[in-house]
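If you are new to this repository, start here. Below is one unmodified record pulled from the training split, so you can see the exact layout before writing a loader.
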Amino acid sequence: MRARPHPPSTARSLAAALAILAAGALSAPAAAAQDASAGTGDPSRPLGPWRVVAQVGSGVVLTPVGFIGGGLATRSVARAVGANETQASDAAYVGAWTTAALTTAAGPSLVGARGPGHGSYASAFVGTLVGGAASFALVRINKRLADRGGEAHPCRLFCAISGVAVFVLPSIGATVGYDMSR
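And here is the target side for that same chain:
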């Protein structure tokens, strides 16, 4: 039985940086709300932890809805205009990823718009793209680690945390982007 290699230091450093970024992203809006209640910010724009959780959660839920719906709709339109199966499939992927990004940003924007103070959907969309890029980087790191490992190895803590982060980072990015634009 071969010993499982440790992740390279670059991978561990990037994973630690992403974890710190995610933790800071979730705590920064709460800190802004505390500043607002202490009189250093705008008291008419409170931002509580439950709102931030709802923003992130709505983005996570809307991502697959947008992906599946956008992919199916784009494939139907492509077929209707005469695309062959390969072209329709390619168009469906573009439509799926585009719609997923748009709906991921919509969740935090819709939840954040309830109550006092409003942010920018465009900022939420940019945050989605940044979170998506971090998510893609994490997928590439995990693939590289799996390729180096050879035989199948059980998923340990790093793999489990990064697996969850891959799905949550775009929504965290959207939430941070929206809330920073308030």
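Two things worth knowing about this chain: Residues 1-11, 14-41 have pLDDT under 50 and may be disordered. Residues 47-180 form one domain.
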